[in-house]
Write a structure and sequence with these properties.
Rossmann fold, 15 helices, 9 strands, globular, Methyltransferase type 12 domain-containing protein, SAM-dependent_MTases_sf, Methyltransf_12, Methyltransf_Superfamily
Length: 374
């Protein structure tokens, strides 16, 4: 891997210096288990799974009075529970024999959550989000409560900030990404032109902007699908070289071929119906030597099962995918798939972090940086 990879990794670890990462894998497993136990306990209590079975996911969803657009989530949960040995799947289809969590088992999982969240640098708001999502499962499934209400209680971004910025892996990845931008700014002999896709509450933006201090910037275009996020960003970051625009990555990107020095997509490129097409479009926007910075989850952990699927549901059910995820309910691409997709789009991968063997890999979030050589 390139010297840029070494530099970015050093910057990332400097940002979390002093944090003990040796217990990261165990902490992740503890949080995953808490959510799995909560889901299986709820399904056993409220559905026909408590009898002999086997039962089709659709029938289980009916027991839960799931809204039509959320019915697919029940099957998604059952597949995850089966993967982790908490429910059996019949050869002919259908699920049966759910694990019956004991009260002491649930209490222990709840107690371990506190030490796990501390080990991962998760704030109290993130722990509260996990517990609230479990309590609200019935209302979430019936579409009476939206996941946005959990992420932004009272319209405030503190909980979302904890999810997307205020934790160990986000601090590492954002610091590494900021150093990549700093390196680019030092190398480019003209004012930078930057596009950020799906910038959300600006959790990554907030760490990137300081890297531009002292460097000329023509514009930094902050985009998102939601006016709520644009309004929040305007209040947070102001104007100057920052511009704001609504943008849906499922449609065409801005038409400025070969004109951008950097495209940033933090925890959002997986939302594209076809990741390869998105990367092709990004590659076409980059000037020679321009870079794309991706922060991506490469494996769906159970701890996101009570939030992410609800955020992805469309009026017709699961989001449509036309790449390697077609015909599945997979949310994320694997690391190898991202690397191949970047290469297929004519982009040279210069950064792929965390390194193999780093305890942070247990969190399954990665930074990819690729350069346009055209």
């Amino acid at each position: 891997m390139s010297p840029l990879n070494d530099r970015a990794d050093h910057a990332g670890h400097t940002a979390i210096a002093g944090a003990a990462t040796g217990g990261t894998a165990e902490a992740v497993q503890d949080l995953d288990r808490l959510i799995l136990l909560g889901i299986v306990a709820d399904l056993r209590r409220r559905t026909r799974l408590r009898d002999g079975g086997p039962h089709d996911p659709g029938a289980v969803a009916q027991d839960l009075a799931a809204a039509p657009r959320h019915q697919w989530i029940v099957g998604h949960w059952l597949a995850a529970l089966h993967e982790h040995g908490m429910v059996s799947r019949h050869d002919a289809g259908g699920y049966h024999g759910p694990h019956a969590p004991r009260r002491a088992e649930l209490a222990e999982a709840r107690a371990r959550m506190e030490s796990a969240r501390a080990a991962l640098g998760y704030s109290a708001e993130l722990a509260d989000l996990m517990l609230r999502s479990l309590r609200e499962l019935p209302a979430l499934l019936r579409d009476e409560v939206g996941v946005q209400a959990l992420l932004y209680p009272d319209g405030e971004p503190a909980t979302a900030e904890a999810v997307y910025r205020g934790n160990l892996i986000s601090r590492y990845l954002n610091a590494a990404a900021a150093d990549v931008l700093r390196d680019l700014a030092e190398r480019t002999g003209r004012p930078l032109r930057i596009l950020e896709l799906g910038a959300g509450i600006g959790a990554t933006t907030a760490d990137l902007l300081p890297a531009l201090d002292g460097h000329p910037v023509e514009f930094y275009l902050f985009t998102d699908l939601s006016p709520f996020f644009l309004d929040t960003a305007r209040r947070r970051f102001g104007a100057g070289f920052l511009r704001y625009a609504l943008l849906d990555i499922a449609r065409d990107l801005p038409h400025q071929p070969g004109g951008l020095d950097l495209v940033v997509a933090a925890t959002m490129a997986h939302n594209a119906p076809h990741v390869g097409r998105l990367l092709d479009q990004i590659a076409a926007l980059l000037a020679p030597g321009g870079r794309v910075v991706l922060i991506e989850t490469v494996r769906e952990h159970p701890q996101s099962l009570t939030s992410m699927p609800f955020a992805l549901s469309t009026a017709a059910g699961p989001p449509e995918r036309y790449d390697g995820r077609a015909g599945t309910t997979r949310t994320y691409l694997r690391r190898e798939e991202w690397l191949a997709a970047l290469e297929d789009s004519g982009l040279r991968v210069d950064v792929d972090l965390p390194r193999q063997g780093d305890p942070l890999t247990a969190l399954s979030q990665r930074l990819f940086v690729a350069t346009a050589d055209h």
